Every structure is written in structure tokens, then in C-alpha cells.
Amino acid sequence: MVPHPPVALSLDIVQRRRKWFAGLVLVALLILTASVHSVAAFNGDWHEGVEALGLSLIVIAIVGRAWCSLYIGGRKKAEIVDRGPYSITRNPLYVFSFIGAFGVGAQTGSLVIGSIFALATFLIFLRTVSREEAWLAEHFGATYAAYRARTPRFWPNPARWRDAEELSIRPAFFVRTLRDGLTFLAAIPVMEGIEHLQSTGLIGFRIGLF
């Protein structure tokens, strides 16, 4: 039988690769939008409104991911965390990542592109989630099975909310999660740069998807 440490290491590698791959895909999608033909009349107010919505969702994602890290930081392989955000969904970190990905895509001024970004992120994370679930089922057995039965995989169920009386905070995990979340903000200067190139004629098409 394969000993536990190598399995955990393998899971860590999968998670790191997932982060890098997700980041590369989002950057590629963001740059790709620079060459998208307009398929609808461009509305400046609408465009700015969608960008503002996207920025709000990015902030929610950053704060939400940091909040989740207060509960899960360093404990994922030691115990089943089922309090706070983990009481209403088994994968709140990923849920906030989907929200952040939508916000990144929304920096194009397009709800459609925001949705594509969120869907792409969901599909990327889906395999990682399956690997994590298999690991948790193997190591925590009935405890994880009970948690899995009462808690949705992604879509939060607020009625299941249960909080912890106190938390033991691990600053290193909190800072790392916060740092990772801040990378969502990189979408703003990237899109501003693309729009500047469009306005100067260096890129021929303007994004106008609803």
C-alpha cells in the first residue's frame, strides 16, 4: 500500500500545477479577447458598468478566499474542516475563485466573456476537486462520507451554516492565500492596456460582447 506522505505530496503537486495552469489559461483568454470582433453595439455606460461589477466580484473573491484560509489553512490533510464557509459548501475557496474568474473576464466589459472565464476555471478545477475528494475519502472514511452527504460540493447552502467557537490562525497560509487572490487584480492593467491599444488603432477590434 502506498504510504500517506507520498500521496499528500502528489496532491500538493496537482494543486500547484492547477494554479499555474488556471492562471495561464485566464491570461491567454484575456489576451485573446483583444482580437474578438464586436457582435453587438458597443455601449460605453454598459461597458463601464460591467467592468465595475467585475471589479466588485474580484474584491469579493480576494476577501472570500482569505476568509476561507482562516478555517482551512494547514488543516486540510489533518482533519475534516466543516465550520464557517466549509459548512455550507465543501469547496468555498474554489467557489470564490469562480467568482474572481468571472470578475477577470468582466474587465472586458462583457458578461459573456466573464461567464466563459468562470466556466473555464470551473472545468480546470473540477479534476483537482475529484482528486482531493478521493484523497479525503481514503484518509477520513466515514467522517468525510458524512460531511460529503450533508454539504454541497459547490453551490452554497446557507441553511447548513455552522461556525467554530474559536480559530487557530496560521498567518503564513493566510498571507499566501491573500497573495494568490491579489493576482486577480492583474486583469485590470492588462485590459486597460488592451483597450488603449484598441483606441490607438494598434489592435483592430473592440470588444463589445454582451
TrEMBL record:
Matching InterPro entries: Phopholipid_MeTrfase
Main location: membrane
Subcellular compartments: Endomembrane system
Entry's transmembrane regions: 20-40, 52-72, 93-126
Bilayer topology: Multi-pass membrane protein
UniProt keyword terms in alphabetical order: Membrane, Transmembrane, Transmembrane helix
Pfam families associated with the record: PEMT
Protein's name according to its UniProt entry: Sodium:proton antiporter
